Amino acid sequence: MDVTDALEDIHGADCQKISQVLARVGEKWSVLIVMYLADGPHRFSDIKRAVNGISQRMLTLCLRGLERDGLVKRTVYPDTPPRVEYELTPLGRSLIEPVTALGTWARDHIPDIDAARAAFDAREADRR
Amino acid sequence: MDVTDALEDIHGADCQKISQVLARVGEKWSVLIVMYLADGPHRFSDIKRAVNGISQRMLTLCLRGLERDGLVKRTVYPDTPPRVEYELTPLGRSLIEPVTALGTWARDHIPDIDAARAAFDAREADRR
Asked: Min CA distance, B106 vs chain A (Å)?
């Protein structure tokens, strides 16, 4: 990974483009969906169950956004009733590693962040 | 990185907690700010210039959120006028690697995502 390179780019004109892509791939539900789809195709209801806390509407919007961005492929199988599965495309699979690194960081640092928030809020309360 | 581990957790009750932390650390402006602060402390105006496209208000909110989460430290130096600098805390520094991986992915895949979006929109237009 080249931090210097990446930094150079955020100084450049590409910043808005990068932030536009980040808005999708760093978005919390996208991260969890990509992590969940890492092991293969899944149905809508399975994803909804795995990514608990996501609403039906938000999952629909998210999957559609991921599909539009070429990260997820939606396949309809002509069963009765029709079965719909979602899976990562090769582009989506290339996201597994960076997204899982971020998801793992988030999972591992929940206590640190909780503690920092509590300390910050206590300082702010003292100030009043 | 342990994908299996991470996957297990998103099936568990921690999912909402992880998504709460991801809402901060995966957020597009946070990613760009953390990447920019990777090389050391910077002033508000420098960050605003580097992360182009961010509004004054959004940068204020973001930095305050990052400070509350213990990722960024704000230091006021008693110059005239007072100088305010922002730098990553040790917790914030631990974010540099995963966040830069995601930012680099975003930068490298802008053309793929642009192409996928155009193809998707063309298919949708045909369908109407």
From this structure: 6
